[in-house]
Each structure stands twice: as structure tokens, then as C-alpha cells.
Amino acid sequence: MERRKFDWGVVLGLALLGFSRSMGWALNKGFSFPLLSDYTSSAFVKGSILALEGVIGLIVPPLLGYYSDTLRSKHGRRRPFIFVGGVLAAIATLMIWTAYKIGAPLWAFALTLGFLYLSLHLYTAQFRALMPDTIESGQRGKASGVITLLEWAGNLFLFGLGGFMVAKYGKDHIGPFGLTAIFLFLAAVFVYYRVREPEAPEIKGNESLSEYVKSIFATKDFLKFYTAQILWWMSFEFIAIFLYGIIAFILKGAATKENIDAVTSMGLYLMALFNVAVLVGSLPGGYIYDRVGRRLSIIIGGLIFALPQLWGWFIHTETQIYAALLIAGVGWGALIAASYPVVGDLLTKFEKEAFTGRYYGVYEATKSIPVLLAGTIGGAIVDLAGGNYRILFPLGAFLVLLAMPLIWSMKELEVRKE
């Protein structure tokens, strides 16, 4: 079979799309918890509302990923979903700001958040699937490094901008919401009109929906990888969802509304620092994946991410918080860059490359399950612990360490010499 040329245009187009989507998710991570804190002080209630992302992400990407594999249209298999989802996500960000400013009740504000989650997940699997659709195995680490770099740069941009605007204008300024809407819209339009998908492959022996679900559980390496990803993303979401509560508890002794408002700007700057560290870790993570080894590169990133969480129980100062997140970010960047190409490589191994949409849909679902679990279970644990948010650190470290033996036992995840 003729080898496809590495297409920098597609990679950069996907990187731009990842940048805009990251702004959307960062807007959620950076502003939803502080805004919800004006409605309720319960960690469980706030966590459960934010866990809507997990419910939607568990259902939508696997289903739409499956159907995008079989779509035959002059617009391509993936681009129609990207265009519609990006436009709706842009509208949703403005609806969130509007609902908060007009004093909408909690249920209505929660619905606007749910609409954002639905819009972004309409094209989650399709965004992920385009990379292995167009990039050969053996080159995917490089592509993953670039895409991951821009994805986390989007987080960095939004968190840095958000921290500045909260410090200057307050948390309800339209700036971060409006700019995110612009980027989401423009990126979706750019990819739709300028990125060309390869010709859709002929699908022989197409899996039915039930066969597709069964095959995930029947193929041990897929099952191990998806399970491991649930564990390390749950660890991440413990910190990401409840970061403001953690900071307020460590520095001020309690996560009250007033204390959360006081640390909101710092929290955004901390997220920006974390994303700088992720950028530092992502490019070598992709390189190591291609050159050193699949399993080892993932495990190195996971261990670096887990160590500062073990330290987290003993953290008491602002400087220590910054240092811990800096180290964790480097590990997280390496872990994500190394884990993104795994599904594509397993599909190559098992000769299922026509099915990237559905399997990356499950890949994204296994990132959504942790949001659901972390939001509800994490919030309940914090409330049961009397508002002690620090308890989330050792729990998160334990989950990451639990995932590492699963990765090491993946028999088909060997280095491919190209």
C-alpha cells in the first residue's frame, strides 16, 4: 500500500480546531465553578452539575463517531459534524454569560452549561478521528505532539486572559466568553472549508452497533487502555473540577463563596501555569512515543503526574501549590501526547483503520466517564470530609498508579520501526 505523505496542512488545521475547543473547555473549567458558587455552597451540587459533561460525553461521541464512519457525502465524513458543533458551541458560550448576567435560576444556568457540553461533543470523535485518518502509524506521535501543543495552548490563552480579566473587571466580564465564541466559530469554518478529508475507505464487514460495543470488551488491549484512561482522567478531573475549592481550603481554611471569589484570579493563573507545563511535556511526549516505546512513554508521564499529588496532602503555601501544579503539568503533557495515538495504532494493528470515528468516540467517552464520577463522587467525598478538599490529592495519585500496570500489560503496544 502506498504510504501517505505527512500532511502539515491537516495537522495545523486540526491543531487550530483543538486550540478553539480547548478554549471552550477551559472556559467551563475556569468559570463554571466560581459562577455556580454564587448559587450554592455544596460541593456535591456543583460537582453534579459539572458532571453533566460526563453524561453527555459518555453517550454522544461514541454514537456520532460510529455514524460518521459510515457517512458518505460530498462534505466528508467528519467535517459536517465539526461545522455544526463548532457553530453551536460558539452560541452556547454566549448563552452561559447571558444566563448568569440576567440572574437566571440555577436550573436554567445548568441547562446552558449542558448545551455547551452537547455542542462540543457533537464533533469530539470526528476531531480526534481526522488525525489517524490522514497520518500514517509511525508518524502519529509527531502529529499528536503538535496537536496537543496547540490544544493546551488554547487552555493557556483562555486561563491567562481570564485571570487578567477577573483581576481587572470581575468574573462576569463578557471578554473571555465572547473571544471563545469567536475562536470556536472561526476554527470550525476554517476546517470545514480548507481541510480536505481523504477518500472514505471501503468498509468491509462493517460492525453493527452491538458488535462494535462487544469488540471493545473482546479485544483485551482496547479494554485495558480505555480502563487505564478512565483512571488517569478521573485523577485529573478531581483536581480540575474542584481546583478553586482546593486552593481556598489550603490557603484560607474553607471553600466559602467569599474565599472562592478571592482565589478565582489566582486559580486561573494556576491553570495557565499548568498548561505551560503541559506544553513543555507534550512535544517530548510525542517524540518519546515514536522513538522509545509506547508503554514506557505513557508510564513515565503517569508517574510524573502522580508524584505531586502524593505531595499535595502536605502542601500549605501558595508557592508549594504553584510548584506542584508545574510538575504535574509536565507529566500530564507527556501522558496525553503519548496516549492520544494509541487508539489509531491499535486500529492499524487489528486492521480496523476504517473505524477511527467510533473507536475515538469511545476514547472520548472514557474521558467523560471520569467527569461524571469525579464530579459526583469527588463532591460527595469532600462534603463527607467536612469540606476538606485536600483529600482529593491522594485519591487522584492512587488512581494514576492503578492505571500503570494495565498499560504495561498491553501486549500489542510495541514500538513500530518505520
Automatic annotation (TrEMBL):
Keyword Transmembrane in annotation: yes
Pfam families associated with the record: MFS_1
Keyword Transmembrane: yes
MF-aspect GO terms: transmembrane transporter activity
Keywords: Membrane, Transmembrane, Transmembrane helix
Domain Major facilitator superfamily (MFS) profile span(s) in chain numbering: 1-199, 229-418
Residues annotated as transmembrane: 48-68, 80-100, 106-125, 146-167, 173-193, 230-251, 266-289, 296-315, 321-347, 368-385, 391-408
PANTHER family in the record: MAJOR FACILITATOR SUPERFAMILY (MFS) PROFILE DOMAIN-CONTAINING PROTEIN (PTHR23528:SF1), PTHR23528
Identification of the protein by name: Transporter
